[in-house]
Amino acid sequence: MNTSLEHKTIVILVADHFDDASVLYPALYWSGLGAKVILSPVTLPQKGDKPITGLHGTTIPLPSLPAGRRYTVVSLRELPMDKIDAVVIPGGYAVDTLRQDKKVQELLADCDDRGRVIGALGLGVQILITVDFSQNTEILKTHKVTAAPSISVEITQAKGRMENEPAMIDNNLVTGRGIEDLPEFCEGVALAIEQARPARR
User: Fold this and answer.
1) Is the pTM value of this prediction over 0.90?
2) CATH number of the domain enclosing 155
C-alpha cells in the first residue's frame, strides 16, 4: 500500500491479558509507515508494580522490541491529546480492564467528538458498548462493525450493526474480526487516518 503515516500519532491502549500479536504486529506495521506509535498502559488499582502482561507472556515494554525507535510508552495522563490521530483497542481480554477505566471512556468519547480514528479488534469492540452507555455517545449505534463472533449477540443487543468481515472502515471507526485479520485491520486504520480530520501539530 502507498499510505504514509509520517507525522501521525497512534495510541494503543494496553492492559493485562491483551493478545500479544495484536500489539506487536500493529506497532511494527504502523511505525513502518512512519507513524509515532505510543503504548499506553492501563491498570486496575490493585495491580501494584507488576508489569502489564499479555495472554502469551509478553510484557510492556515489549522485551523483544525495546521502546525507542518503533514505539514509546506513555501513561494515559501524559498523552498529547491534541496530537493523537488514532486510539486503538487491541484484541484479547484487555478490554475487561480498559472498559472499567473512566479516563479510557472519556478518551474514546473525545476522539469520536474530534473525528479522530478509533480502532478496535476482536473482543475489544466491546468497549464501544461501555462508552456509548457511560459517555452518552452513539459510536456503536451509528457505525457498522465487525468483531469476534462470540460477542455478536451483545453488539446486536446494544443496537450495533454487526458484519462478518475481516475488517470494517465506517468513517472514523475501524474494527477487526480477530487476530487472523490483523493485516486488513492495520491497513484499515492507516487508510482511515489518511482520510480523517488531521490532529494539530
Assistant:
1) yes
2) 3.40.50.880
